[in-house]
Design a protein that fits this description.
Chain lengths: 155, 411
């Protein structure tokens, strides 16, 4: 098992203690979407403001563990102001980062080197994959964002 | 005179002989699942190595032995809970949850209609809530809740009105979140005075004190093997014989019939009617060994041991953390079992449990399948530590050390 420091990186603790983009946006124009992790009771509400093909603003409320809240905060910082294509690309990269593959769980349990440079601060969450139970926590904000984008497009 | 020694129980449990993260295992999750002693594991091994065959069918020697083992387990369980009608009242299921589904889908569904009332409590596990809501949706019954007071105990001030017209009162013997034990004999009298029957969720109580359905006047009882030092995959549903006889089958298939024709079927008599398909035979053998092991320890002695551990832990948590670690449950140890639900200031239960894991301490974070209760106290989750017969004061030492680390890390 990996040491605790792999999970609780300083960046994560910082975003947990001082979450970014907290608050609400008026709906409409913003789209509101909720996500829950039924197993541990984590919850998040995202407010997404889309103009043309750009996520011009994102705010969030919610409560949960350090991993779910820090991941949400880091996500907000990473996707705010980005085009939808860029947001979806970040989403896909993050999902890949959180995927436990057979090779990764093989002998020794050392993860294959994964190019995390494109992820910026989000790379701090790379250690979560070594704690498989916590992956759902890290993904909560992201799956909620994906759902919100789909809904907003359908509106 | 019994000579109970928790240290000896610990030595009997193989899992305590391994290290986790280089530390001894501090297992404080017995409310979730208990650790089986060697006697249970060996009984199951012996069964598979020497006797395994399907039950109630073959007439060869090992089939007779397997059947005798399986039915012997039923008799042992009947004795363990003091079933007045003996083994013929004991149905083997998969777990407590399946037992409650059997109660709801068989006994409930065959007699309930719109307006019939089932009363549960706010401290129930979802296993004793969801099947009744399902029956509400399919049969139009009404589900009422007895509230939990600020003292973490059932608030019975309005209970007469709640029980008015009720057919069933279904309560837990001990809350898996609060540790609160309910007075089952008093609740049975209360239910019966209102013309209702009493069902008890014994999942948390059977391994941590004596269970006596005859003494307490209980009508239905459900519990799981793996929460009483036995294996997973087996549970028990007990009902008074007069009630069991009126219940239609729940699951259909092999083993539960007297006859099958091209125009229909006739169910078997007795408990066989509720045991469709090949039952958990090895698990029954393991459960039998667990029953014997618990009887050897003495249920009252185990209860006293866990009460002392709880009293000590409540005191030490309070004087070490002075309110930064709040216990969601009664502060005293009267009618209270060894379950400590913790709310740690500024640290989410998931993070508490993660840090504790590095100390080799196993606790359970989450809502513990008791969301109505968590809502009642405005909590999304707690970190729950719970004791078993093998628990020792040094487990509390490790818990306190780990909690100190969690508080420091997230400060």
């Amino acid at each position: 098992m990996a040491p605790l420091d792999d999970l609780y990186r300083e960046i994560i603790l910082d975003h947990y203690r001082t979450p970014r983009n907290r608050g609400e946006l008026a709906t409409p124009p913003a789209h509101r979407v909720e996500g829950f992790n039924p197993l541990c009771g984590d919850e998040i509400t995202l407010y997404l403001e889309l103009v043309d093909d750009r996520l011009v603003d994102i705010k969030m409320t919610g409560r949960g563990c350090s991993i779910s809240q820090a991941s949400a905060s880091l996500m907000g910082a990473a996707v705010r102001g980005k085009t939808l294509a860029e947001v979806r690309a970040a989403l896909e990269r993050f999902r890949q980062l959180m995927t436990v593959t057979e090779t990764r769980l093989g002998e020794g349990g050392e993860p294959e080197p994964l190019d995390v440079r494109s992820l910026g601060e989000l790379a701090a969450l790379a250690g979560v994959v070594k704690f498989p139970v916590r992956i759902k926590c890290a993904l909560l904000a992201w799956t909620t964002l994906a759902q919100g984008l789909d809904e907003a497009r359908a509106d | 005179m019994t000579s109970f020694s928790p240290a000896r129980v610990r030595a009997d449990v193989p899992l305590f002989h391994r290290l986790v993260h280089g530390r001894p295992l501090t297992y404080l999750d017995s409310a979730s699942s208990t650790l089986p002693p060697r006697a249970v594991i060996e009984a199951m091994d012996r069964y598979y190595e020497r006797h395994h065959a399907n039950v109630h069918r073959g007439v060869y020697l090992t089939a007779e032995e397997a059947t005798a083992d399986y039915e012997g387990a039923r008799a042992a369980v009947a004795r363990f809970i003091n079933a007045p009608g003996g083994a013929e009242e004991v149905v083997f299921t998969k777990n407590t949850t399946e037992s409650f589904n059997l109660l709801a889908r068989s006994w409930g569904a065959s007699r309930f209609g719109p307006g019939d009332v089932v009363v549960v409590t706010e401290m129930e596990h979802h296993a004793n809530v969801v099947p009744w809501f399902q029956l509400r949706d399919s049969h139009g019954i009404e589900v009422r809740f007895i509230p939990v007071g600020d003292d973490f105990r059932l608030d019975l001030t309005d209970v007469d009105r709640r029980l008015e017209g009720a057919k069933l009162l279904s309560v837990t013997g001990m809350s898996n979140v609060l540790g609160t034990r309910n007075d089952l004999a008093a609740l049975a009298r209360l239910a019966h005075d209102h013309g209702a029957l009493l069902a008890v969720d014994g999942a948390q109580s059977v391994a941590h004190g004596s269970t006596d359905v005859a003494r307490d006047g209980i009508d239905f009882l459900a519990f799981s093997g793996h929460k009483m030092l036995g294996p997973t995959g087996i549970g028990v549903f007990w009902a008074r014989r007069s009630l069991l006889e009126t219940m239609p089958p729940f699951l259909g298939g092999g083993g539960m019939i007297a006859d099958v024709r091209t125009d229909g079927f006739t169910p078997a008599n007795g408990v066989a009617r509720f045991e469709a398909g090949t039952p958990p035979i090895a698990e029954a053998v393991g459960l039998h060994a667990a029953v014997r092991y618990l009887e050897g320890l003495g249920p009252d002695v185990v209860e006293a041991h866990e009460r002392e551990l709880t009293r000590d832990a409540l005191e030490r948590l309070e004087c070490t953390f002075a309110g930064r670690v709040r216990v969601i449950g009664p502060r005293d140890v009267v009618d209270r079992g060894g379950v400590l639900s913790l709310d740690v200031e500024g640290v989410h239960p998931h993070d508490v449990a993660q840090v504790l894991d590095q100390h080799g301490v196993c606790v359970r974070p989450g809502h513990h399948c008791a969301k109505p209760l968590m809502r009642r106290f405005g909590l999304a989750a707690t970190a729950r530590a719970s004791f078993g017969p093998y628990s020792l004061p040094r487990d509390t030492d490790a818990l306190i050390e780990g909690l100190g680390h969690a508080l420091a890390l997230f400060a």
